[in-house]
Amino acid sequence: MKNHRFRLMATALAATALLAGACGDDASGDSGGASIDETTTTAAPLSTESTATTVATTTTEAPDEPDLVPEPAFEGELAGLFSIAEASCGDAEVSGSYFRMLQPGGSATDGPFVPNTDSTCVDPSFTPLLPGSDGGFISGGFQPAPDPPFDADGNGLARSVTAPTPFFGVAFAVSSEDEGAAPLITATEGTLTGELSGWTANYATLVFGQGTPKPDGSLPGLTSELSGSIDPATGAYVLDWASQIVGGSFDQFTGIWHLEGVFVAEG
Amino acid sequence: MTLRRTFTISALVIGLGMIAAPAVFGMFSRAPDGAAMIDDFRPFMTPEKVTLFRGYLAEIDAADTESRLLLEPALTQFGVIDSAEYQSKFASLAGLNESWPAIEADMTDLVDRMADNLDSYAAVDALPNFKLFPWFFVAPGVLIAAVAAAVLVADRRGASTKVLLRLLAGLGVAVVLAPAVFQMFERAPKGGDMIEDFRPMMTVERVRAVQGYFITMGAAEGQLRNGVLPLAAASADLPSDQFVSITQFSEDWPEIVVEFAPMISAMSDNVDNFAGVDALPPFAMFPWFFVAPGLLVEVLAILSERSPKAYLGIENVATI
Description:
The complex is a heterodimer. By secondary structure, chain A is an alpha+beta fold.
């Protein structure tokens, strides 16, 4: 909703500026022309992160319009793509997006974690995530697994959110399933919260609900609420959550998810 | 009170007892737990699965042996890596080498318990659905209680009770015969044997242990595939194709995960269900929970029919 408001505001501003520029053309052609060009250029990509920047910039140039006081960019419900930045874990410092699996009885900070010997990280308790065909996950929409979700070897086939990720000889695949409400991330002054109930890991013919909260709204065991931050200017974000597996072969194990990347509002 | 009335009231009480029994034994919750457990284990309780699992364990055993007795000595002997570095760099493999005897013993025990109970499982699976079990008590109990109550009412009104008492006796016979019809005398004790055999494996601790085994095995397999074998392949003296057992293990590992994971799931998801079933009275007793009340009802109905309406009771003297 707020993105729509942004767009309406930006469109109104662009129209106002165009009108003012057109009027000013008669008086001072050069400066008016430059203004029109600049406004048109910056206002054009309204659906991307630059939109917010544009709106902010434009509004600060029009302080006489009290109704157009800007809301912070990337504020409120964020509908769009949270791109997934590839992990960098060639040394002890790990950045980018990754997954860890905490063993039963462990703690999210101290482990013990499952060592994934298929990981390319120096520390095999970190499993790097690579962006999928959509580039990341979509807030406000679903990215379900294909049917069938597995190949003959039990490798997950979903590849829109992340690329299938080798884990103990079998690839897990992430999908965003329709478990009720669509994924929804909300920004409040740079802090991210939200729901990712449908976040699902498909592995070895088994399906693991790895979102938060669980589809029934609960936060069992070490399952944590989603938390993170976003840079209002660039859309660079960080998201973290933990989701404990309830039942099944990995009962009581906890998936620790860390995503980094850039948010791009839907166009 | 007449003896006849006493007999009939006794039959009524037995009927009410049968109605109450499932609630007393917690069968309304435990029987569905048992049904769920039977369903979850069905894919694994086959001779084919047992053979498959035994084959995987033998395969891992061969790979473990090969890595200890052939691969590591070869790598260190040809100076590719020294022993201390091997142990430290491939700690997960070393972990498997060290713990495999215990893992193999425990996993073999699990598979043996499955194998030993294939017939018992089939017998239990052939019983009527566990979810229906409470109603096998409630339904005849209601009928018995209702007919016995009708006899009492008819008696009080001075009406004929012959048909009702014969119906009551017939119900008793039906309850007596039910276990035989469902072959419970043969199947229920087998269920009891299976419960006994599964008890050591259906615990949270055992499930956690098996989960841990897969971390140990999976981590070692990954190191073999991604670390040790490439190291051996890089050495001109060590053609990697001589490590056939390890290669086979790595090739089959995804299949092993896919096959074993659902079985661990079945174990994990049914720990509570098993506890519920285990808390029921012994399976071998179940046929007698039908035979005993059925027989009693039958006898009481016959005795009641043969007893004079006025025996000791004053109230009934007037009705003669």
